[in-house]
Design goal:
The protein has about 220 residues and is α+β, with helices and mostly antiparallel strands. Helix content is about 65%, strand content about 10%.
Length: about 220
């Protein structure tokens, strides 16, 4: 990133120097007018003197305009440098963030504490608290108990435990719906997808160490 910023600043600085050096001298026009005065001292008629005065005023106006152009170029170069540096910084930050997200997806979410408070209907994940409905809390509690027992639960098994009906009478989709609602309650899609994992043809499980789970 440092090399990129240095390259941007160097490139724009070089372009600015070239532009400034190639612009005509602000006093060039006035110098020509002065030369006319010196070389044509025989111009004494009123109209001729008036013409020379107009030329002198035009030279002054030209010098002021050129000076303002230099300032405009300087401001635009500074603005362009700031924009390009900001774009580079944001690009590096985005790439870094994507790499971190990929690492999280590979290694899973790092949970040091998962507290399920039935009285408050709240799940405390590390330092974050998630207020859930009673149905969501039931689903979370079932998953937590299954994780502590080292088990994976299918959607039908989750529905059977919560509803109290026999597993054959429960629909897999009903349990999947409970999982979806739980994930929605957790809010952050990345957190919920990594915390409540669906292992194909096996079932749902909390992808955390069972030692950090506490139900109160």
């Amino acid at each position: 990133m440092t090399v990129g910023i240095a390259a941007i600043v160097t490139l724009l600085f070089t372009a600015g120097v070239v532009l400034v050096l190639t612009l005509p001298d602000a006093g060039a026009f006035n110098a020509r007018v002065e030369r006319l005065f010196v070389e044509n001292d025989d111009l004494t008629a009123q109209a001729e003197i008036k013409l020379l005065e107009i030329l002198a005023q035009s030279g002054t106006a030209f010098a002021e305009t050129l000076a303002s152009y230099r300032m405009v170029i300087f401001v635009l170069l500074v603005f362009a440098t700031a924009l390009m540096v900001a774009a580079l910084v944001f690009l590096v930050m985005l790439v870094t963030l994507n790499r971190r997200m990929a690492q999280i997806e590979r290694s899973g979410i790092q949970v040091s504490s998962l507290i399920i408070s039935r009285e408050e209907n709240t799940v405390y994940l590390n330092t974050m608290g998630f207020k859930l409905t009673e149905a969501m809390m039931e689903t979370m509690a079932v998953l937590a108990e299954a994780r502590m027992d080292g088990e994976l639960l299918s959607g039908a098994q989750i529905e059977a435990v919560i509803s109290g009906r026999p597993e054959p009478d429960c629909d897999e989709a009903a349990g999947a719906t409970r999982i979806k609602r739980l994930r929605d309650g957790l809010g952050n899609q990345l957190v919920s997808e990594l915390l409540v994992k669906n292992i194909a043809r096996k079932g749902y499980v909390l992808a955390i160490d069972k030692a950090v789970i506490e139900v109160i």
